[in-house]
Amino acid sequence: MATSSSRTPSPRADPLTLQVVELIGAVVGRYHEEYEEAAAEHSLTGAQARVLGLLFIEPMPMRRIAQKLKCEPSNITGIVDRLEARGLVERRPDPADRRVKLAAPTAEGADVARGLRDSLNFAREPLAELSHEERLSLRDLLRRMLGEEA
Protein backbone atom coordinates (compact mmCIF):
# COMPACT_ATOMS: atom_id res chain seq x y z
CA MET A 1 0.00 0.00 0.00
CA ALA A 2 1.34 3.44 -0.92
CA THR A 3 1.89 5.92 1.85
CA SER A 4 0.66 9.47 1.58
CA SER A 5 4.25 10.67 1.19
CA SER A 6 4.74 8.45 -1.89
CA ARG A 7 1.59 9.84 -3.54
CA THR A 8 2.36 13.49 -2.80
CA PRO A 9 4.89 14.97 -5.19
CA SER A 10 8.02 16.34 -3.62
CA PRO A 11 7.93 20.13 -3.25
CA ARG A 12 11.06 20.14 -5.43
CA ALA A 13 9.22 18.35 -8.22
CA ASP A 14 5.89 20.10 -8.23
CA PRO A 15 5.25 21.98 -11.50
CA LEU A 16 4.92 25.41 -9.88
CA THR A 17 8.25 25.04 -8.05
CA LEU A 18 9.95 23.91 -11.26
CA GLN A 19 8.48 26.88 -13.13
CA VAL A 20 9.71 29.31 -10.45
CA VAL A 21 13.18 27.74 -10.53
CA GLU A 22 13.30 28.07 -14.33
CA LEU A 23 12.21 31.72 -14.13
CA ILE A 24 14.83 32.52 -11.48
CA GLY A 25 17.43 30.84 -13.70
CA ALA A 26 16.31 32.93 -16.70
CA VAL A 27 16.51 36.17 -14.67
CA VAL A 28 19.98 35.28 -13.38
CA GLY A 29 21.15 34.33 -16.88
CA ARG A 30 19.96 37.59 -18.41
CA TYR A 31 21.49 39.59 -15.57
CA HIS A 32 24.88 37.86 -16.00
CA GLU A 33 24.77 38.36 -19.77
CA GLU A 34 24.13 42.09 -19.40
CA TYR A 35 26.75 42.35 -16.66
CA GLU A 36 29.38 40.70 -18.90
CA GLU A 37 28.50 43.09 -21.74
CA ALA A 38 28.75 46.13 -19.44
CA ALA A 39 32.07 44.88 -18.06
CA ALA A 40 33.47 44.42 -21.58
CA GLU A 41 32.54 48.02 -22.44
CA HIS A 42 34.95 49.04 -19.65
CA SER A 43 37.58 46.50 -20.75
CA LEU A 44 36.94 44.42 -17.64
CA THR A 45 36.16 40.77 -17.15
CA GLY A 46 32.91 39.93 -15.40
CA ALA A 47 34.87 38.90 -12.29
CA GLN A 48 36.77 42.19 -12.24
CA ALA A 49 33.51 44.11 -12.59
CA ARG A 50 31.90 42.15 -9.74
CA VAL A 51 34.88 42.82 -7.45
CA LEU A 52 34.87 46.51 -8.34
CA GLY A 53 31.11 46.65 -7.72
CA LEU A 54 31.53 45.11 -4.26
CA LEU A 55 34.34 47.49 -3.37
CA PHE A 56 32.24 50.43 -4.54
CA ILE A 57 29.75 49.54 -1.79
CA GLU A 58 32.51 49.31 0.84
CA PRO A 59 36.26 48.59 0.98
CA MET A 60 36.97 45.07 2.23
CA PRO A 61 39.76 42.54 2.72
CA MET A 62 40.40 39.96 0.01
CA ARG A 63 39.13 37.10 2.18
CA ARG A 64 35.74 38.79 2.58
CA ILE A 65 35.50 39.48 -1.16
CA ALA A 66 36.21 35.78 -1.78
CA GLN A 67 33.48 34.79 0.70
CA LYS A 68 30.93 37.09 -0.94
CA LEU A 69 31.79 35.85 -4.44
CA LYS A 70 32.18 32.24 -3.26
CA CYS A 71 35.65 31.72 -4.70
CA GLU A 72 39.23 31.16 -3.55
CA PRO A 73 41.08 34.11 -1.95
CA SER A 74 44.01 33.51 -4.32
CA ASN A 75 41.70 34.21 -7.28
CA ILE A 76 40.64 37.49 -5.69
CA THR A 77 44.26 38.48 -5.12
CA GLY A 78 44.92 38.12 -8.86
CA ILE A 79 41.80 40.09 -9.78
CA VAL A 80 42.67 42.88 -7.32
CA ASP A 81 46.26 42.91 -8.66
CA ARG A 82 44.96 43.50 -12.21
CA LEU A 83 42.49 46.18 -11.06
CA GLU A 84 45.29 47.84 -9.08
CA ALA A 85 47.58 47.80 -12.15
CA ARG A 86 44.85 49.66 -14.07
CA GLY A 87 44.54 52.26 -11.31
CA LEU A 88 40.99 51.23 -10.40
CA VAL A 89 41.70 49.74 -6.96
CA GLU A 90 44.20 50.39 -4.18
CA ARG A 91 45.19 48.48 -1.08
CA ARG A 92 45.16 50.36 2.19
CA PRO A 93 45.47 49.48 5.87
CA ASP A 94 42.23 48.72 7.69
CA PRO A 95 41.75 51.53 10.25
CA ALA A 96 40.31 48.98 12.70
CA ASP A 97 43.26 46.56 12.33
CA ARG A 98 46.37 47.87 10.59
CA ARG A 99 47.59 44.29 10.02
CA VAL A 100 44.74 43.82 7.54
CA LYS A 101 44.79 45.33 4.04
CA LEU A 102 41.55 46.54 2.51
CA ALA A 103 40.95 46.72 -1.22
CA ALA A 104 39.19 49.96 -2.10
CA PRO A 105 38.27 51.67 -5.35
CA THR A 106 40.29 54.69 -6.43
CA ALA A 107 38.37 57.75 -7.65
CA GLU A 108 38.66 56.37 -11.20
CA GLY A 109 37.54 52.93 -9.99
CA ALA A 110 34.50 54.46 -8.31
CA ASP A 111 33.61 56.24 -11.56
CA VAL A 112 33.90 52.97 -13.51
CA ALA A 113 31.84 51.10 -10.88
CA ARG A 114 29.16 53.81 -11.02
CA GLY A 115 29.12 53.59 -14.82
CA LEU A 116 28.77 49.80 -14.64
CA ARG A 117 25.89 50.04 -12.19
CA ASP A 118 24.15 52.72 -14.24
CA SER A 119 24.40 50.68 -17.44
CA LEU A 120 22.61 47.64 -15.98
CA ASN A 121 19.07 48.22 -17.14
CA PHE A 122 17.79 44.63 -17.20
CA ALA A 123 17.05 44.33 -13.49
CA ARG A 124 16.18 47.96 -12.90
CA GLU A 125 13.64 48.50 -15.69
CA PRO A 126 11.34 45.53 -14.96
CA LEU A 127 11.48 46.30 -11.25
CA ALA A 128 10.32 49.85 -11.98
CA GLU A 129 7.07 48.35 -13.28
CA LEU A 130 6.36 46.83 -9.87
CA SER A 131 4.72 48.88 -7.15
CA HIS A 132 6.67 49.76 -4.02
CA GLU A 133 4.72 47.11 -2.09
CA GLU A 134 5.47 44.46 -4.74
CA ARG A 135 9.20 45.29 -4.65
CA LEU A 136 9.16 45.07 -0.84
CA SER A 137 7.42 41.70 -1.04
CA LEU A 138 9.88 40.42 -3.67
CA ARG A 139 12.83 41.62 -1.59
CA ASP A 140 11.48 39.92 1.52
CA LEU A 141 10.77 36.67 -0.34
CA LEU A 142 14.28 36.62 -1.84
CA ARG A 143 15.80 37.29 1.59
CA ARG A 144 13.73 34.46 3.03
CA MET A 145 14.89 32.11 0.26
CA LEU A 146 18.48 33.02 1.15
CA GLY A 147 17.88 32.41 4.85
CA GLU A 148 18.22 36.07 5.77
CA GLU A 149 15.88 37.98 8.02
CA ALA A 150 13.24 40.00 6.20
UniProtKB/TrEMBL annotation:
<dbReference type="InterPro" id="IPR023187">
    <property type="entry name" value="Tscrpt_reg_MarR-type_CS"/>
</dbReference>
<dbReference type="GO" id="GO:0003700">
    <property type="term" value="F:DNA-binding transcription factor activity"/>
</dbReference>
<dbReference type="GO" id="GO:0006950">
    <property type="term" value="P:response to stress"/>
</dbReference>
<keyword id="KW-0804">Transcription</keyword>
<keyword id="KW-0805">Transcription regulation</keyword>
<feature type="domain" description="HTH marR-type">
    <location>
        <begin position="17"/>
        <end position="147"/>
    </location>
</feature>
<dbReference type="InterPro" id="IPR039422">
    <property type="entry name" value="MarR/SlyA-like"/>
</dbReference>
<dbReference type="InterPro" id="IPR000835">
    <property type="entry name" value="HTH_MarR-typ"/>
</dbReference>
<dbReference type="GO" id="GO:0003677">
    <property type="term" value="F:DNA binding"/>
</dbReference>
<keyword id="KW-0238">DNA-binding</keyword>
<protein>
    <submittedName>
        <fullName>MarR family transcriptional regulator</fullName>
    </submittedName>
</protein>
<dbReference type="InterPro" id="IPR036388">
    <property type="entry name" value="WH-like_DNA-bd_sf"/>
</dbReference>
<dbReference type="Pfam" id="PF01047">
    <property type="entry name" value="MarR"/>
</dbReference>
<dbReference type="InterPro" id="IPR036390">
    <property type="entry name" value="WH_DNA-bd_sf"/>
</dbReference>
